[in-house]
């Protein structure tokens, strides 16, 4: 298939792997610890496992799977709020598919649906708005989730709802932003990541400029990458070359999609509709200042948090779970006592086991090729 | 109303000659059955597909082909089907006529009569438009000993053609994706193909139609039941570019998509060439391919060699595939 096969070309991959090997051989001299590269985005985690990239790389390189899976970092209390909204008789609760299995403290949206809640899977927030128009006697709530990637589309949906006066539509806004979270990670005293593969879809919206502090303040290279295996291998090579040269820059491997200035129209819509929250809770990471957004006052009428009385409770993860340590790259999934026993894709305790972008689910399903508990 | 609906099915299936006009049961001559093989095969399946009509078929063709295939992959020669329909009040009789006609056509094409049936009408909301249950009996060929637990290291794994068409066609036909593609369901009765396959590979170990859960589910069940490893090569998987594209957009994996006219067969290595040739000589097997091997790797584990030599585990799917956010 055109525009896909080129980026999965085995010969090209072999050449890149060879070059990565050569750079690693030089970097390896005098080192006794692995080079850790964090791929921030869950889509990259998924691709790394799907194509078996880890197995192709020298032992020196270790991927650490970052916090960029929106489903994985959703705190339990927020899932509980979703379930509470969805279980109201007047509500049609519309959500992206992979949010449906995330466990809340008592149940997931999928379980709520099985018990009779009207939960609908949609592919776009505009589908939820269409549901609202089609069901004027019901309250349609869209579960807004994701980073800057999905933010513009929910922003445009709210703008359209406002323009059309669709009063039975609202947004339960759980959007989060990646930059404050990266900063919070980097400010941790024991943060041992040597370089970053930067998110592709987020950068398509925000551009490459916002990452500059990572190179300038923290001296780490970051390469914005595409999602095909060749993209990832090439980006890794770019990161390693920076390390070899002793440089730390923000580079853009995904220039075919990501303009350095981002998408001004999308950013304007986001700016118009959302404002930063003081802080937002991330599963496993705790509260991070400025890392979430909410609807601006002008769109308060479409804010599900205002329309429904929500518990907004903070619910702690089970004490034995190691989600936070796995999310920050401090521990590998199989170091968690629950991995593969108490916590499996069928009975997930933590959200990292739910989404195919979550590193635990990825290790459980695709992994085990390099050290994961069998 | 009841008579009208009964009449629809009765009229559609009548030419097959097997539907007894005034009796409550179909009757079969045991000696004639015994001549076909040495064991009776018996299977049933309920069909609740939404939408009822989709490119490449409808609930009727699905109900007939699905049950014929469940018999065929057990090595049985299908003998007869039953059809029970639950109809939601208010369903246009015209819809029912179309479904009955395609059932009759599929049954006739396969030479397997629908020998008995029943119809119930339930109140609006008590079912979704139309549910169809078909039950089938068949006779297992004498001496044939196949089963999901019979694969051995070295065996070759075959499929009879392009994978994932049905699953993609159904998802697309629901209409909420607004993707423009012409993918059609592969819905087909495989009994003829199976007969040719068995004739060419008498040592065949197992067959399974790769319906819900797709080829990945069959491979996992096989690895589990036979206590063997399974390895497949991504490059050898026959998948139509439209289906690949469809899956790329939605974040789905074609290996997990349902098929309704595809089977997975395991044959001893020495019979693999003959089996593949026999499949390819049949109209429903032109795209047949050897996709992998049974290995002495870790029992129960299915490993896929990716396009450029990486490896990944193909696990059993938990629940339905859910499209990813981004």
From TrEMBL, chain A:
GO molecular function, one term: 4 iron, 4 sulfur cluster binding
Keyword Metal-binding tagged: yes
One Gene Ontology biological process: protein maturation
Keywords: Iron, Metal-binding
Keyword Chaperone: no
Pfam families, per database record: HypD
Protein family according to the UniProt entry: Belongs to the HypD family.
Name of the protein described by the UniProt record: Hydrogenase maturation factor
